Structure formats: structure tokens, C-alpha cells
Amino acid sequence: MGDSKLILCCFIACILFLGVNGENPYRYITWKVTYGDIYPLGVKQQGILINGQFPGPHIDAVTNDNLIISVYNYLNEPFLISWNGVQQRRNSWQDGVSGTNCPIRPGKNFTYVLQVKDQIGSFYYFPSLLFHKAAGGYGAIRIWSRPKIPVPFPSPAGDFTVLAGDWYKRNHYVLRRLLDSGHNLPFPDGLLINGRGWNGYTFTVDPGRTYRFRVSNVGLTTSINFRIQGHKLKLIEVEGSHTLQNTYTSFDIHLGQSCSFLVTADQIPEDYYVVASTRFTRRVLTTTAVLHYSNSKRGVSGPVPGAPTIQIAPSVMQARSIRWNLTASGPRPNPQGSYHYGLITPSRTIMLSNSAPYINGKQRYAVNGVSYVPADTPLKIADYFKIPGVFNLGSIPTWPPSGNNAYFQTSVMAANFREYVEIVFQNWEDTVQSWHIDGYSFFVVGMNGGQWTPASRSSYNLRDTVARCTTQVYPRSWTAIYMALDNVGIWNIRSENWARQYLGQQFYLRVYSPANSWRDELPIPKNALLCGRARGRHTRPF
Hints:
Layout: H1 2-21, E1 26-38, E2 45-50, E3 59-62, E4 66-73, E5 81-84, E6 109-115, E7 121-127, E8 139-144, E9 158-167, H2 172-180, E10 190-193, E11 202-205, E12 210-217, E13 223-228, E14 233-238, E15 241-242, E16 247-248, E17 251-253, E18 258-264, E19 271-279, E20 286-293, H3 313-320, E21 348-355, E22 358-359, E23 362-363, E24 366-367, E25 370-372, H4 379-385, E26 392-393, E27 407-409, E28 411-416, E29 420-427, E30 433-437, E31 442-449, E32 467-468, E33 470-473, E34 477-484, E35 489-495, H5 498-502, E36 506-512
Parallel strand pairs: 1-4, 3-8, 9-12, 11-20, 21-29, 25-27, 26-28, 28-36
Antiparallel strand pairs: 1-2, 4-6, 5-7, 7-8, 9-10, 12-18, 13-17, 13-19, 14-15, 14-16, 14-18, 19-20, 21-24, 22-23, 29-34, 30-33, 30-35, 31-32, 31-34, 35-36
């Protein structure tokens, strides 16, 4: 009788699993992660390569595809990959950060099983541990619409990825030691486009045709401005949202953000600069790639086109101009605007304030006075096995405390499944902040200077603001978002400035459902790595 019940349970489990994933294609990917010599700024460095490539190979998927990604770690350090913007619906087990996953030990492997459920757009993956991001290991994720879902622009003649960001000539472990010693990073040494320095990468186009450029800021410390000499940028997508198709001559992209432009090769056939430069920095770093017309007989020429540098007002105006295309279909056939986010009243307001305290004489960064320290066991694993003492709910306040005191804590904030919350990011520092929330897309309803108050809501865009997963907060300013907590799990909320993230400007949000149902959250993966206080335990039989 017992065997019959077990077989029946297994059968039901398989049916439930296949009901979620079985009708959608599976894509199998194998990655070998190694060290290798790279020369992005003309100096030999130890880079992190994926299948011998820097940047790593693209991931191409269609909405709802299942991705089976086997990662073999040939480094001499533990390693994890995370997926910036992939929402991991009901599945924070696959998020690939220290709060959800045990690291892949040297010489070992782990297979991620994730689904790009109800998503389209431009994202990227990156290594999340030990400041590995400063050595590479990142690559593009492109999620295409299903064939029968209309897209609000003609099919482009080509699809280009631009992974741009600041870079250091020092190896990642040297930068890590600098941070561990209580110091901040120096100013970057340069910028890269697709892992190359000045004019090191070429995009070839045919005259008269239109191309999609997917641009991500994969840097460590600075916002960038992107532009193409003599050409217009028509914005069409931001982190999985189709936008109104406004046209720009240059565009600010903050740390961790991704967006797509249509660019028409409508100029005299020759070569043109593709430019990325730092924003909001006194010293401006610039790098270029080349837009090459296929019938060009002339190389790049003339001065590199300029762009705003430290001016904040143009960037704020540009950010406010990004609007949701209400009539376009997203990953599903129904129009994006059928979700009326502005008609829902948030159940509560959370305010998050960043700071740069010194604790025990060392530079740290904090959220609401709490500087995050990783636990010895991933929070998600500890929560599943009910291991006491790893973290405490409520270990970070939901509102900034008075005073300037800061302290260390493995900070976890409690939230309930299906809450609808307002989150205000308050920035009293003199630098632009960039915030990312794993597992979610949120609506950026407002941003302005000074102190947020309830009266600030009168300026909110409650009709057609864009939904995205990473937002900027300008100096001495605030940004407000609305977010539906419809994804059960433990999710990382972090600064995309990688030094600030590493030194504590992050925490985890535990979105809890008491139902304990696969309808709300998938079970622990059978192959989940167990470490810390979970070592020696078992996941599940099937």
C-alpha cells in the first residue's frame, strides 16, 4: 500500500511539473568557467571566461522556454552565476546569489533549471560572488517574443548586443582585497564595449536597413551615456517592457540597466563612432566601437560626439520621458496597459535610504543603517530546513532610523505574498544610486529632488510609467516604485554599484505564502547544493 501511494504521489508531482513546464521547449547549455589571459585595456589580466569567451556566450530564448544550464567551475574559488532581470517565477532556488544558493566549489558543477516565464526583452547574466564581476564572466540574455505575439515594430535586419561598462586594469582579487581592507575602489581605468577598448569592436550594417541594439551597463561603479555618431536612437524596450518609441541622440544607462534601440543606417556610407562615456564623473572616460557600413570606403573620422557629463537635469527629464506602450502586447497577447497599476492602492510604504558609514574604522555601505553580511548558509536553504540562527525576519527596519549609526546584520525584511507595496528609495548622498530587485518587475512611478513626503505622490505617473527591474536615484533625491509581491521566495534587493553591494548595500526580501503549495512556489530542486549548517541534509526524493 505504501509503495502504491508513493507511485501515485510521484505521478501527481510529474503531472504538476509538466503542467508548468512540459509544453514549452527546453534549451540545454553547458558552460565551462575558467581563468584566461585577457587584454581589454592593453594590459594582461586574469579574466573569467565562459567556454573560452569574454564576454561569455549569448543566451537566446523565447518566452516561457526552459533553460537547463550546466555550469562547471574550473576556477580555484567558489563560483555562482546570477541572471539580472530573469524573474525566476516561483523559483528563487535558481537565482544564483549567496542568499539563495550554495556556491559551486572548485572542480564541481551545478545545473540551473530555470524558465523565462512570461518574459521578453534584454537582460544579462553575471558572476555574483567574490567580486568576480570585475574579471568578466558576464554575457547577454535575449528573450524573444513567441511567434504569434505581435511586436510593435518591424523585424529589424539584425540584432546587436552592446555590453558596456567601466573596467579596472587590476585583477579582481586585488580589488577585493582593497575593499576587504576597508577602502573604496579608485576611479576606473577605462570603459569597455563587448570586452574591447577603443575602436576594438565593429558592428557591420547595410545601408538603408534598421537594426536593434540591445545595450546593458555591466560596469561596476559608473553610469554611462550611449550614442552613435550621426544616428538617432529610437527606444523600443526597457528591461522587458515595450516603450513609446521616443527618439534620442544619446541615452543615459545606469548601472545594471538594459534597453533596446532601433538604429537606421541612413547616413553617408562610411564608418561612425559607437560611443560610451561616463556620466556624473568629474573626469570623463570614453570608449568607442565602430558602426561600419558594408559598402564603406572610409574609416571613422572627426571628433567623437559629445554628450552630457555631470549635468543631472537632462538625465532626469530623459528618465521621465520613458513611457510604457499601453497598446503593445508584452509576453502575452493582451496589451501591456491592461494592467492598471495606478488604480491599486498600496497596502504599505517602505522607505530605503542608502548611506556610507565607517564601521570599526572601515568603509562600509548600508541600507536603513544596516550593512549586510552574508550568512554561513544561504537564507533560502536555511528557511526551507528551518535552521535557527541563520537570519531573523525584521532584522532591517522598513523606514530609515534617526541618527547616523550603522551596524552589521544578515538583514532580511518580511513581506506577504500578494501584497502591493510602495517602495521609496531615498538618497542623501552626492552620487547617483542604482537599485535592482531580483524576482520582480516594478513600476517607477516618480522621482524628484529632496525629501520624499506623502505629498510627493501628487507628482506620480499612475498611467504609463515603465515597468523594469533596475532604477536610478539621483543625488539628494528620491525615486518611488509600485510593486506587486506576486512571486514567493527570498529575493535580493541591492545596489548595482558593485563595491557598495560587496560592502553591505543590499538585503533580502522574504515574500511568504503560508499555503506551502507548488502553485505558489516550486519545491527545492533535487540537485540543490547544500552547505554551511545544511550540509548533510537531503533535498527531496523526486
